[in-house]
Amino acid sequence: xxxxxxxxxxxxxxxxxxxxxxxxxxxxxxxxxxxxxxxxxxxxxxxxxxxxxxxxxxxxxxxxxxxxxxxxxxxxxxxxxxxxxxxxxxxxxxxxxxxxxxxxxxxxxxxxxxxxxxxxxxxxxxxxxxxxxxxxxxxxxxxxxxxxxxxxxxxxxxxxxxxxxx
Length: 166
Hints:
Elements: H1 3-9, H2 11-14, H3 56-66, H4 88-100, E1 107-117, E2 120-129, E3 132-143, E4 147-149, H5 151-163
Helix pairs in contact: 1-5
């Protein structure tokens, strides 16, 4: 399946970083140089995979709430970084249209959640639905008082939906 296919299925959602980085300090030590021992007090290393990663259930909750046709997008702005980046009336119309066509609900398989920067993570999302074969996309989520779909991932989905003719 293509991104276009996922976007069509995820139209219910949309209209409906750092790469792993580390700091290495290389210092030349001579007999005249004092030895400095770095000390860390319970501070997680940047991009420590065990720190601040969302659970699959947290990400599924974001996606499932976005696709819920009984809740207006006017009440879903907290689920997308910076708010819903398109007119709410259009998003609600597209979501209702998808529901009327029997394209919902979508089911999500969430795998490979990895940190992409401070307070950010990406995950491979495979969506399936009544009219959607398993279709995968890598989406980014940000933690801003709770996990939400990143602005860039929302825009990618919107562009894909628009290019698919929806």
